[in-house]
Sequence to fold (389 residues):
Amino acid sequence: MSTINPPTLPIRRIAISTGGGDAPGLNAVIRSVVLAATRLGWECIGIRDGYNGVLQPDQYPHGGTLVLDREAVRGIAHLGGTILGSTNKGNPFHYPVRQADGSERDTDRSDELLDWFARHGVDALVSIGGDGSLTIADGLQRKGLRVVCVPKTIDNDLDKTQNTFGFDTAVAFATDCLDRLHSTAQSHHRVMVVEVMGRYAGWIALHAGMAGGAHAILIPEIPFDIEAVAAKVRTREAAGRHYTLVVVAEGAQPQQGERAVAQAARIGQAERLGGIGEQVAEQLATLTGKDTRTVVLGHLLRGGSPTAFDRITSLRFGSAAVRALVQGLSGVMVSLAYPNVVYVPLGEVAGRMKTVPADSDTLRTARDIGICLGETALSAAERLSAAGG
Ligand code: F6P
Fold:
């Protein structure tokens, strides 16, 4: 790995920021970065709520930043959330600045941030976040800041890393919910539609749906035919199985229709998805005549303690970020390439999304064991050719 942005000065102080939607494991990363860095004699400064602690200091009567020493990170590795706070509304390159007439103007405040780092002797930044945070970090490193990123998101939709931390915890929780829903769906002979997060990728829906024994799984990568799902319900009815569990990713969309958007994009803020579960439930009730209910797992997927896998991944990512800086790397993301943690240039990951590939073995397994993916019935030959062999 070449040095992308060679350091000219030794590091004495680093800043840590957590941005975007929170994910279980953030605190374990923070703890790992701080413990590894303080052993090298570096000081760590935590920025509150992404970069808002620096860009909106008036909002923080007790300070928009905090010193992170060993004491500050004691006993946090197993806790959900982030002790620094997070936001998905604080992109310094597209900051919503309120105007006199009440409107908001898209403003580039990245120079103010870099200036603050320079004035406070911050030699490098560890940015922990998803795609939005990676893109911001890439922009900052292009302006000369030394940056190492740690990939976070329950959605698992970041490219060039086998896993992001938070995903395993979200899948485990959703699976537990599905286990619980089986019995009530069965008792009441209902169709239960479970909507899960994941943005434009179906990782959470696919993995939780398979682990939790769902009968149909609808993901954004495969636009669905509601008739195919209704057919699955009817087939089960005919076989004496009077209940059906359907897992729907929030980004799933019908073949003839739109994605369900709960809130349109705003300045520096992505659109918010949601509502497809209820649509699917209503249509299935009409098409099958079955009693149907919807459960939206939503932000429950982001809460709670990280699984052991996510804790270990987070701890490994945090110390790897510090090692990257020691090696003089900048503009890289730490990445899981099992069994190793490696470094990937930000230019290769920022702005790219990892969706479930059409030839995924997991998808093929789902089809092989009879899970409905909302596909219009294909002949065996068509299906084989669609899956590439
Ligand atoms: O990216 C994580 C995520 O939880 C997505 O799965 C979801 O679409 C989004 O964040 C929700 O964001 P918010 O916290 O703004 O509702």
User: Anything to note?
Assistant: The pocket of 6-O-phosphono-beta-D-fructofuranose is lined by residues 21, 88, 130, 153-155, 197-199, 250, 272-273, 302 (CB under 6 Å). Confidence is low (pLDDT under 50) at residues 1-5.
